[in-house]
Amino acid sequence: ELARDWWKSAVAYQVYPRSFADSDGDGIGDIPGIRRHLDHLEELGVDVLWLSPVYRSPMDDNGYDISDYHDVDPLFGTLEDLDGLIADLHARGMKLVMDLVVNHTSSAHPWFVESRRSTDDPKRDWYWWRPPRPGHEGGAPGAEPNDWVSVFSGPGWEWDGRTSEYYLHIFATSQPDLNWENPEVRQAVYSMMNWWLDRGVDGFRMDVINLISKPVTDEPPGLGEMIYVLNGPKVHDYLREMYDAVFAGRPPGLLNVGETPGTPVEQARLYTDPERHELDMVFQFEHVDLDSGPGGKWDVVPMTVRHLKDSFGRWQAGLADVGWNSLYLGNHDQPRCVSRYGDDRPEHRVRSAKALATVLHLHRGTPYVYQGDELGMTNTVLRTVDDCRDIESVNAYRAMVAGGTDPEDAMARIRYKSRDNARTPMQWDDSEHAGFTTGSPWLAANPNHTEINAAAQRKDPDSVFHHYRQLIALRHDDPVVAHGDFTMLLPEHEQVYAFERRLGDRRLLVVANLSETRTSSPTCPRPRTGRAPSSCSATPACPPTTTGSCWAPGRPGSCAGP
Ligand code: TEU
């Protein structure tokens, strides 16, 4: 019988299905490919597989734009394939957590197709529709209902000429935001969630769940004046309603983690306090925003070991007595952690990857391993924007250059932070395309797969892979790792990251020398791989705020509108 907080001693592994393993040679990863590599996960020792979206989707945002919540996209396989994966994982004592993307749908979802048909369509109020700003002609620049911008560059509102109104899209224009004020929307989401749980899924990773509540105000232009609504007025009410409608009464064994960009510790205490029946834990963004300046993600600023220690220390202290931390350094949205927080030069990469893993996994919280980080995979080579596939990177490059940023400077920023860095094919072996596909991969494999791959590392007891395996085993074997308290040591030290964990009379002392960690240079991010940019601006110009979000409001001048 699992305890309700079983996930405190568990480790999760994130699979980005498009890039994990391709079974049919179309160059795109799929569910049968995942099923062929479960030995890798079992040898690593992980307990949970978090699967990024495999639902039907036009794939504008690689599946985070869903057009059918109840079916698997043929690119990834069938519902039967997914049932098979669930059965395989359960047979191995592992669990499956699905990605839940319900802040928005794809514009191809039937709900939106109906909603946009007319202003009095029964589904009109399932999304956010607003008239042009008073005194402005619809579709003209500046006529948007308010100044919200899209995370993927440009305004957060799209003009729909057929019904002469704008619709809200915090992300791509093909990702319209659902209106959670509407109880019909909420009930439809809860019904879908129950359908998946009844199918054997063990919980959800809830995409940008802190964005679902928007501040609705009466006076024009409505929707309040904030750039984004992080942790909006009703988000906690919605999560408690979700708990009552979906999770209450189900046996222990589920895991629900919310992705909550820009959320401060105080909010995370509310989201993860078990007495509040909201979430088990959240993905916080403070440490992945450390190298973002006032202009947002692409305004790269220096980051030091001290910054990292201060941030993690704040979150360890903030959730020590209530709630729970997730622990992550990488995912499908972030550059490779050994390149960003460590040093991926060949002479340092292995030690650097091991040091980062040691520090992360021995903190108090639930660790998440992003596919390939257990091998010490690095950022890839992005020569020009043509090497990019990610809508966020391509849009940001175009917006920066259109805004006057030198193309090479813009490319230097993209090279450092593009999400494509984490989406190159999983490096299984040293064969062509890293053993990921027999076809032509949708995104080129990192050329260094000949040196960095799972086959080589499984045979090398000193590999990054076996280091991760030993850290995961330690968490399973020694309760001080999962349940011990946390005390930061040498907080002022610029290179050493040290802390102590205590449980009863057990002590665990962790000391890591992160001096290998190379901060991003104050002028431009030093490309860990690929050609150094020919010219870097002396200081990162703050690109126009339309190039993207700043999830950490409260930074001086943080995205204070255009
Ligand atoms: O990401 C939400 C989010 O915070 C993104 O803005 C992300 O941090 C950003 O791309 C980093 O530059 C979630 C998903 O993880 C992401 O893949 C999706 O693109 C996004 O939501 C929309 O669903």
From TrEMBL:
EC id: 3.2.1.93
Keyword Coiled coil: no
GO molecular function, a single term: alpha,alpha-phosphotrehalase activity
Residues of the Glycosyl hydrolase family 13 catalytic domain: 14-423
Low complexity composition-biased segments: 532-550
Keywords: Glycosidase, Hydrolase
Stretches the record annotates as Disordered: 518-562
CDD domains: AmyAc_SI_OligoGlu_DGase
Family matches, as NCBIfam families: PRK10933.1
PANTHER family to which the protein is assigned, alphabetical: ALPHA-AMYLASE FAMILY MEMBER, NEUTRAL AND BASIC AMINO ACID TRANSPORT PROTEIN RBAT
Family statement: Belongs to the glycosyl hydrolase 13 family.
Protein name per its UniProtKB record: Alpha,alpha-phosphotrehalase
Organism name: Nocardioides taihuensis
